[in-house]
Amino acid sequence: MANQPLVLVADDEPRITKLVALTLHDEGFRVITASGGEEALKKAEEMRPDIVLLDIVMPDLDGIEVMKQLREWRPVPVILLTAKGATADKAKGLDLGADDYIAKPFHPDELAARVRAVLRRASGVAPGSGIVHLGPVDVDLERRLVTRDGKLVSLSRTEWLLLQHLVVNAGKVVLHTELLTKVWGPEYRDDLQYLRVWISRVRRKLGAAPGEPGPITTFQGIGYVLNADDPAEDLPPEVLPSEADPTSKASAGAATSAD
Are residues 97 and 201 in the same domain? Predict the structure, then answer.
């Protein structure tokens, strides 16, 4: 499904990429592969994967160099695939910001578990965080599934990333620039109209009628807040609307618009 995590696997050994791809596909992930560092960079730019698995030793660019270049574009999670005895490479990779490493040969169950764990940490979703309820809509953060009235909602990858970030911060105002940077990268941080178009698409997927905001409230000139069921219980006072708050419904009627 389009809203399942996209994994990029780069290794110059075809049997490794095939094993990893089959294992992760069976676990519900979407997988793309690359046979070297240069190809991995090209596919990462084109496909914008949710997580990247990199072999450290590759003939053109090694995994650590690929990771460094990827991190110059956006903060994508990276797991390094290493030879069992390559302790120095493991340490260097972790020091340079790798999220995890897996020694080859590895067990398929361990691979899938490590990928899920890194994705949870990267998204700020704790294990067991389960399902978030938005009226008739249920968002399963761990399985990356959305249902409305019990029926599966098909989301594109971009729609899922937007919704995920709003759900993780449910009840809090998320700034325009934060959403744009998180989903599309820092070069899009000022493209407000682009964000409005995608927010509108997400609202429709969540069942909002045309012109209605649904569970996503607009705070004009600031950002958006997603209203989960009973969100106020765990919120600090400073993010709750009040008469004195310039983003409150009382002082800014446009805050409830669908733009």
Answer: no
Q: Are strands 51-55 and 30-34 parallel, antiparallel or unpaired?
A: unpaired
Structural domain containing residue 137: 131-256
In terms of C-beta distances under 8 Å and separation of at least 24 residues, what long-range contacts does 191-199 make, across chains too?
A: 196/259, 198/158, 198/159, 198/162, 199/162, 199/224
199 and 237 share one domain: yes
Binned at pLDDT 50, 70 and 90, residue 89 comes out as low
Helices (H), 59-209: 63-73, 87-95, 108-123, 157-168, 176-184, 192-205
Q: DSSP secondary-structure letter at 77?
A: -
Please check whether residues 135 and 118 belong to one and the same domain: no
pTM of the complete model beyond 0.85: no
Residue 32 in this model has a pLDDT that exceeds 50? yes
Residue type, 117: A
- Indicate if 48 and 158 belong to the same structural domain: no
pLDDT at 205: 93
**Secondary structure E strands in the chain:** 6-10, 30-34, 51-55, 78-83, 100-104, 131-134, 137-140, 145-148, 151-152, 174-175, 216-219, 223-226
Q: If you average pLDDT over residues 221-248, what whole number do you get?
A: 52
* Dist CA 144 CA 14 (whole Å): 29
Count of C-beta atoms within a 10 Å radius of residue 20? 26
Using the 8-state DSSP alphabet, how is residue 238 labeled?
G
Return the residue matching tokens 């991995």: 40
- Place 216 in a pLDDT band, splitting at 50, 70 and 90: very high
Dmax (CA) for the chain in angstroms is 63
